[in-house]
Structures are given as structure tokens and as C-alpha cells.
């Protein structure tokens, strides 16, 4: 099967045609087009008679219905081939009706497979960008990290610290002493040591994107086997919560591979498929599943968790999950730009507040938010009454692929008020990693997903190198001093501090709340113990399938 032949069938009927038109549709050269046409002619799909001489057009005559033939072939392959191989055919340029039939058939290949081993096959629309804890800047990758690696401690959304790789600890004003569990194994079979922990934390402490969070730490040492001391002469009330974050995961690198201690180990990781297998030697409860397999599917493929055993799927129930929030970030200290003028930013704030209710027309999952970004902290604030400034030059707006829908709302709103703009389109990677690009932009919509504990996550949002605010606020000494207060504030008082800092960001029109996002995931009623954990994703280690038994 050839997707180029399917495209030709879909967009060109029998009759006169020019090879230039075919080449343009197939996005190949005319020389390549001629070779393909001869090949398809020889295979009996069509007859192609090239035009002879100047002004004479070619003629195409179809001999077979390409889409019907290809659909029959794909249906056979879906029954015979592994799902990660057959999934590539869904990327072909099918008509709407054919694609729907194939997707319905393909969906039966996903779900909970209970044979010799229990396996959950999950559709994924994008490959995982990374499985390394220090580089997991997106929620999909970070969720994988949460399944493959462990932290020294864990932090609940209520703020309770629970033991993980460390079973106990002693805290003083200048030192945290951690006592590690015995006989904890990495996925390569080696045993966790204090040296492994120190190596990970030292890399994290000097990591470009995370070093600001670790500024209070002076030294990390071990004075006895399975004992780790973290020293901080100036105090660090948030040291235990800090150790619970995904970036603080403990891992071991060996021979070009990275190993964790988590409930699942990575058996395979390609663009097409990622397979997690239960780690039987896990020091905590073994996952109830034997494997979770993520297989790439088209963007419009429905994500449903169900059993693939039943011809007629069981009823589903919706699980609501927080999918983060969206804010407009304005580069308030950009030299030479109008955006550095607070009156300009407040006028923008004013018109966006007046049009915020229209965001769901562009982003269906968005819920307009005119309050705090932090759930549970309703923070009403006054909308500034601003006079329209004179826009002497276009505002430079960055539009990233993951915020494209909401950005269209922003651009349409500016067009409604005759505000001149210049749009720069960027990839997700550039939006996260290209700091120079952020520095050269006046504003952009930013999407953020908190990890689990809101108080710690908001501080992470203000300080970690992957987020945009540290780059902007770091140019201003007053803001540097303001954020340094976190280090000297007891962690239990961070809620009030977060609320105050957020209000200042809004009042100065540096960060404007726009929307919350919710995700509603359908689960079959057969799947049990569905719990939402880090970054709004399901905890795979707890899932199991209730078997159908004879009465």
C-alpha cells in the first residue's frame, strides 16, 4: 500500500490531468511523479497516457477503486499484525467515512488484554519526548517519569510528606538526614546506595533549569551506608517537599541507559510504541498490571480505556482530570518595547477581560477564569480602567503549537480592537527551551500543569528554568527580592505568599489568568481502581480488570 496512490485517488478523477498538478498534490518532484505513475500503471491500478508535445495534456484512467482495496487490506492487517505496526495505516489520507470505520476497528485492539499476562494497550497521539527526570518539561513525559522512577519522599496534595526511598528522616534548621531503605533494586538489578542518591541530587543541584530551586543547599554527603545528609546553613523549610518532585527522581545511568526503581520498567521506547513492564522486585506494592503499552495513533483518534476482550464494550464512565491552566504572559521588562509600559499592559488586560468568555469558542476544553490560577484560592481582582494607548509598532506575539487554539482567540481579539501584531509561530520545544526567542517576544499564551501539591508547584512555576516567568522576572531586582522571600518563609505559610505574589503579577499585568482546562477520560466499567495522580494522569500501578466469571 502507498499513501501517495491513495492521495492521487482521493483528489483526481479519471480524465485529463497535468503531471505538475500531481507532483504538487503528492509533494514530490515531477521526475519522481513520472516514476510513480509508471509503477502504478505496471501494477494495474491505473493507466496513464502522457501528453506528447507542447500543449498536450496527459490522461489518467482509474482501473480499480483504490480506497476500497486499501481498506480491505488494512482490515486484514489489523487482525494479523501487532497494533504498533498496523497503527501506521491510520495516518493515511482516508476519506472521513473510511477513516471512521478503520478507527472503530482499530479501537478494538486497545484496552485491557487478559491472557497469560494482563496488559493495557493505550493510544498515544505523540511520542514521549524524554524519559529522563531532568529533561521532562512536558506533562506526558513527566507522567512516565512518575511510573518509572521513585523519589526519596512523596508529597500529597494536602501537604503530607510520606516515605518512599527514604523510610525515615531527621530535620534540623541546618540539616536533613535521610535513612534509605535496604535492598532497593534498580531495574538493572543493582542495589540502591547512598552514592547513587548523592550523584542524582548533585546533578540536579547544578542543573541549568533547576539550580535556582536548590540555591539554599550547601552540600550533600554520606557519613554512613544508606544515610544521606543534606546541609543548608541558611535554612530550607521546603527541602522535603523539594525532594518529592519529579525532577528529584532517583535514577542510575549505565552504558548509555537510565534505570529507575519504580513499579514499571521501560522495556521498549520508540516513536511508534512505548512499553512499560511491571517490575517484580519493586520495594513497594507490585503493579497489578503486567504491562502498559502506548501505541501511536492519529491526533483525532478517540482515547478510551476499555477491555479489548469484549465484542460489545461495556459501558463507560467519565473520569474528570485537571489539565492545567492558561495565562497570558507579558514580557514586562523588554527594553525598547511598548510592552514595558504598564499602561499598555493594563489596556490589554482590560480588553482581554471583556472577551475572556469567548475562549471556549476556540478551545473547547477551556473554562474561562477571571480569578486565581490556584484551585481553591478564589482571588477576585479589579479590572483596570485603561485608556487606549497609541500603538507605534506591532506587538510581537509568540504562538506555540500546543496553545494554537487559544492564541487564535487572542489574535482575533486584537484584530477586533485594531491592535497591530506580528506573529511568530514556534514548536513546543522552542517555546520551552529557546530562551532568546522568549526574550524577543512581547507576549504569549502559556499553558501550565501543576504536579500534585499546588503550593510547591506554583513556586516551581516562578523559579524553574523551563517556565517563562523566571526569565522575565529575573531582569527586575524588586522581583528577585520578592521571590527570594520563599526561602525564608516556612513552607506551611506558602499559600498566603503564593496568593500575594500572584495578585502582584496580575495587578502589574505581567500574568493574566485566562482559563482552566479539564480533561474527561472515558473508562470502561470493567476497569477498576481508577485513580488520578501526577499531572492529572491515571495511576497505572493501581489499575486492574474485574474478570467476567460464570455464575
UniProtKB/TrEMBL annotation:
Keyword DNA-binding listed: yes
Pfam families on file: SBP_bac_5, SgrR_N
Gene3D superfamilies xref list: Periplasmic binding protein-like II
Superkingdom of the source species: Bacteria
SUPFAM superfamilies named in the record: Periplasmic binding protein-like II
Ranges where the Solute-binding protein family domain occurs: 161-299
Keyword Disulfide bond (UniProt): no
Assigned keywords, A-Z: DNA-binding
Name under which the protein is recorded: MarR-like DNA-binding transcriptional regulator SgrR of sgrS sRNA
Transcriptional regulator SgrR N-terminal HTH domain ranges (all copies): 13-69
